[in-house]
Write a structure and sequence with these properties.
Helix content is about 20%, strand content about 30%. By secondary structure, it is of the alpha+beta class. Strand 13 and strand 14 (about 240-245) form a beta hairpin. The longest helix has about 35 residues, at about 1-35.
Length: about 375
């Protein structure tokens, strides 16, 4: 009798295990049929997403998260020494040789932050210091520097301040080609506080349809709001390159907007911007069919509209009198195709290409007029 009871118990265990395995298999099939493979994640082994993309297989999900965290931490450590705090200057009469709080600048009391852009002491900041002798710069390694020069960039409204320094650490400017939608970026304050975000949109136009060759209208949009504490804070990619600077509206001014000013500072110690003097419509923004009577212009390239169509702005001006564009013979209706061999397209606007130059520099512009391709040499003002 005892042996029979043991046999029954063993049979019950075997049947329960069989039903459990079978139920799991059926549940898996139902999940894959009605929910989709993308929501079925194995407890062990690798996660295979190769059916959804180019052979993407995550062999150890936990390791991926750890590696991402390590990369973020390493990037923050690497970029922090290129950031500074800007403080109101202490009264030197209160300083003494003993310990005194008046001798120190306290993290959190800064009035602004800055990004080192040249090894010889130029710093870019959104803060507007009214006088050099009222402020000091403090680096991440607690070195204090007096400000000896302040310049304002009229095109971007950024301030550039200079301190007497050598061998400052400088981060690389990210190339526009290396900035993409969905990319993970970091907003890093000089004290190390960090916010992780993602790029949701690039080259979003903030102005009207007609743009100026001599101003910027593009922004980088982030998927999340970072808030006022991060206004003026630089944005980095995970490689530590500078993507841009967060403005007061929680949008990012691309770092390419400041490249020309930086080169000008290195060359002459001044901020000088190139000017073409033309207004235009970015044809890559346009959609729809061209009327049959529109003329012989070929607006398309690989199926997309291209070029910058010189066009009147609200004041009725297409090409400013006495401008570089006027001297080069450009007129309303001309379609600018390239500047210095670089195409004007959805990735690069005419104003971006103009700002690659300094006043007095020359280059060749290729354009269409009445369907005929022409070229002209322009000397930027």
């Amino acid at each position: 009798m005892e042996n029979k009871n043991k046999s029954n118990i063993l049979l019950i265990i075997i049947l329960a295990a069989a039903f459990g395995i079978g139920g799991g298999a059926v549940g898996g099939l139902l999940a894959r049929s009605y929910v989709g493979d993308s929501l079925v994640t194995p407890f062990f082994g690798e996660i295979d997403y190769s059916h959804q993309g180019p052979n993407l297989i995550i062999r150890d999900p936990k390791k991926v998260v750890v590696q991402q965290d390590d990369r973020v931490s390493n990037t923050v450590s690497a970029v922090q020494n290129g950031l500074v705090g800007i403080f109101k200057k202490r009264d030197p009469r209160k300083a003494d040789k003993n310990f005194n709080l008046d001798n120190f600048y306290v993290t959190g009391d800064e009035v602004g932050q800055g990004l080192i852009i040249t090894a010889d002491g130029w710093i870019m900041t959104a803060f507007k210091p009214e006088a050099a002798d009222k402020y000091v710069v403090v680096t991440s390694n607690n070195q204090v520097y007096d400000i000896d020069k302040i310049l304002t960039d009229q095109l971007t409204s950024a301030s550039f301040i200079h301190v007497d320094a050598k061998d400052f650490p400088v981060r690389k400017f990210a190339s526009p080609a290396d900035i993409a939608n969905g990319q993970t970026v970091l907003a890093v304050r000089w004290d190390g506080e960090t916010e992780l975000a993602a790029i949701s949109d690039i080259k979003k136009r903030t102005g009207g349809l007609v743009e100026s060759s001599d101003t910027f209208s593009s922004k980088i949009q982030l998927a999340s709001k970072l808030g006022p504490d991060f206004e003026g804070v630089p944005i980095f990619n995970l490689g530590g390159d500078i993507v841009g600077v967060l403005d007061k509206d929680d949008q990012v001014d691309p770092i390419s907007h400041f490249d020309s000013a930086t080169r000008s500072l290195l060359k002459s110690g001044e901020i000088r911007r190139a000017s073409l003097g033309a207004n235009y419509i970015d044809m890559s923004r346009m959609a729809g069919e061209i009327p049959s009577g529109a003329g012989a212009f070929d607006f398309r390239q690989n199926g997309n509209y291209r070029g910058a169509l010189i066009y009147k702005d609200a004041s009725g001006t297409a090409v400013a009198k006495g401008s570089a564009a006027a001297a080069a013979g450009l007129k309303e209706g001309d379609l600018v195709l390239s500047v210095n061999g670089f195409d004007v397209d959805q990735n690069t606007g005419l104003n971006d290409l103009v700002q690659e130059f300094q006043p007095g520099e020359r280059t060749v512009i290729i354009y269409l007029r009445n369907g005929e391709q022409k070229e002209t040499e322009v000397t930027f003002k």
